[in-house]
Amino acid sequence: MSILVSLTGSFVNVVLVLLGGGIGLLVKKGLPERVSDTVMKAMALCVLFIGIDGALEGSNALIAVISMAVGTIIGSLLDLDKHINNVAQKIESKLSKGNDKPQFAEGFVTASLLFCVGAMAIVGSLESGISHDYSTLITKSVIDAVSSIVFASTLGWGVLASVVPVFIYQGTITLLAGFVAPYLNDYTVAHMTCVGSLLIIAIALNMMKLTNIKVMNCLPSVFLPIIICMFLK
């Protein structure tokens, strides 16, 4: 029972994202394609702003450089992008009509990264596990719900499917809070946010069709500051 109580914040996050995403899908049906395309570009600009704002959290550029370089090498060798897209397509085949797989994968990856990367996900999960304080995660959940309305209205079902990695990510941090908390001080979280925000910038550029960066292959970079910050300050 105590485990379920600890995960309350993550459960709330899942429910609100599903609710917001559901509203977004209903809205999508009434949007002309030209409106949907314009909204998509507008959201890309917002995502770009979020990424730039978060990237400024870090104070040591060397940590970001090392994290991005090593993390991207690891992710590329593992070919995470290919694996996550395969998972997205399998989920898509169960949830939708199977006629929009590229967009489903884009929505799944975009929403998963946006909802997972950031200080609120990390700090909120730690608070849930250590003191059963859900205030940060509930605040994040409301923000995610609003975001999911907009993104589901343009990217579809994939946004709703993002609740799976979001719950696994936040739930894992919550359950391991007692062990990982000593390594996730403000300095480390700031640099994790910085590196994660660089990935969000890449997402924004992909949404604008300016690049075709395999963002998932860069994902291990987000966790490397935990190790690097032990040696560089």
User: What sequence of helices (H) and strands (E) makes up the elements?
Assistant: HHHHHHHHHHHHH
Which structural class best describes the helix and strand composition? mainly alpha
Main beta-sheet strand count, sense and barrel state? none
Number of strands: 0
Structural notes for this entry:
The chain is mostly helical. The protein has a domain at 2-51 and 80-190. It is built from 13 helices and no strands. Helix 3 (33-55) packs antiparallel against helix 8 and helix 6 packs antiparallel against helix 8. The longest helix has 23 residues, at 33-55. It is globular.
Keywords:
mainly alpha, single chain, 13 helices
What secondary-structure arrangement, pairings included, does this model have?
Elements: H1 2-6, H2 8-29, H3 33-55, H4 61-78, H5 80-95, H6 101-116, H7 119-131, H8 135-155, H9 158-161, H10 163-175, H11 177-180, H12 186-207, H13 225-228
Helix pairs in contact: 2-8, 2-10, 3-8, 3-12, 4-12, 5-6, 6-8, 7-8, 7-10
What is the compact description of this entry?
With 233 residues, this protein is an all-alpha fold. It has a domain at 2-51 and 80-190. The chain has 13 helices and no strands.
